[in-house]
Amino acid sequence: MQQILVVDDELEHLNALCELLQGGGYQVLRTSRPERALAIAESQRPDLVITDWDMPGLSGIELIRQLKAHPATRDIPVIMCTGSMTTAAHLETALQAGAVDYVRKPVEPIELRARTRSMLQLAASYRQILAKEQELARQNELLNQQKQELHQAAITDRLTGLHNRAYLVDQLSREFSNSRRYGRPLSCLLLDIDHFKSVNDRHGHLVGDAVLRHTAQLLSRGLRRGDVLARYGGEEFVLLLPGTPAASAQALAESLRASVAQAVWVQGELSLPLTISIGVADNLAGQAEDETALLRHADAALYAAKRQGRNRVVVHAEPVG
After folding, report:
1. Domain of 304: which CATH number?
2. Is residue 236 annotated as a catalytic residue, yes or no?
3. What is the pLDDT at residue 286?
4. CATH number of the structural domain spanning residue 57
5. How confident is the model at residue 81 (pLDDT cuts 50, 70, 90)?
6. How far apart are the first and last CA of the chain?
7. What pTM did the predictor assign?
């Protein structure tokens, strides 16, 4: 049943309005104290408010303004009911305050019911539209969230949580282009877990997967904003360092190598010491003509590190034996 709040300090008129509305099949809330009307409207959320204009303490105009200023009641339509509204100026004042319609005293029952029915229909239509808009906004938010999740999944390595190879290739191309455009160095580190095949062969792929996650976490620590760490494939990782020359990249690589060597992987009774080998290449020092060449230089340096005994860092610009 639709609910109407009637506010009028004149009890005789208040009772007459309520009887007319109840006769029309509406549930009626009433108060002769306008200062209580806002609290009633907030708690009961009526479908319509009908208020007198001239009331002591709080006028109907001020009541409407308060209703429209409150988030919980601002969408409730209000009909002004008064004998004072005899001019266009009065009507304009009421409408500017937020009233949607008016009736004059003494009230004509047919007019009151017609205007009430019309306002309630409009209010119901508005609520339906608002509900649809809210549902549409919720669906759009959910869709955006799903798109973001799909995008994140598309660029993330599921095992380690790092960026995947597809993301790396895209970022490498972008960073190399920026580096060439602005004349800034770009270093590329290619990192490989030493003797990883023996870990899988001796302890199984589940242990191997745990070692990969462990190593990824160690490599992720202390990276700067803008650095790009990705799993390249298997037990190999790539770290891009925009704006970083080979000397600084070598220092970071040594720090990463030491952190892995010092952090023994432990699971239950199984304890595995791990080491990594790292190849470092700088696009400027190594004179890489494109991003593929930069990655190839890093790979050559990594291969040299493996040949020289593993658990070490080799920079491509250095002579490698």
Report:
1. 3.30.70.270
2. no
3. 65
4. 3.40.50.2300
5. confident
6. 90
7. 0.64
